[in-house]
């Protein structure tokens, strides 16, 4: 397998063949990412990592959570610079915290988009922590945070708020246009207005600001790095 310079090498670990194929497809369709292996059993992950030397590992965190987290701990001990992102079924904050304690730096739900998965992988590689925006993370021993919304000095219009919600879900400009029945050029105009009103550097920064407000935690400042930044 030929790997281009600058490409992030990803190992996909998932028990179910259908899910494994789906995750492989999501990774390979994301610019800058390429699958270098897809073991079906957690115990094979370390062996394959020895030969493939991935930059990141995407793991399924479902019914076999215990075995998968054990494999993650082993991977992190052997390859501490390898970023691990989980695609999980549980929204339980206790499970999220257990995963993060095991060394997972990205925790997404199964319905996450390929774009959001790509962002999470790159953010995890940069040492940041990403928790799916659909999850309200609770730190051990603390009360559940109150969900908040950003309140820019210049309020967003209703359509800008709709576009921002789509950005948080990791949608591309083209998909946002399709979902909201507007042109891609109109989407770009709304995104520029959103960035200006929020004082965000780019769309990834805008998403990080929303996630931080909604989840009530810094989570590594949620400073996501987009696989490819659109405007």
From TrEMBL:
Any keyword Transcription regulation? yes
The record's annotation in Pfam families points to: GerE, Response_reg
Q: Which residues form the Response regulatory domain?
A: 9-125
Alphabetical UniProt keywords:
DNA-binding, Phosphoprotein, Transcription, Transcription regulation
Location of the HTH luxR-type domain: 149-214
Q: Which organism's genome codes for this protein? A: Blastococcus carthaginiensis
Q: Which SUPFAM superfamilies match?
A: C-terminal effector domain of the bipartite response regulators, CheY-like
Q: Which Gene3D superfamilies match?
A: 3.40.50.2300
Q: Signal peptide location in the record?
A: none
Protein name from the UniProt record: Response regulator transcription factor
What domain of life does the native source organism fall in? Bacteria
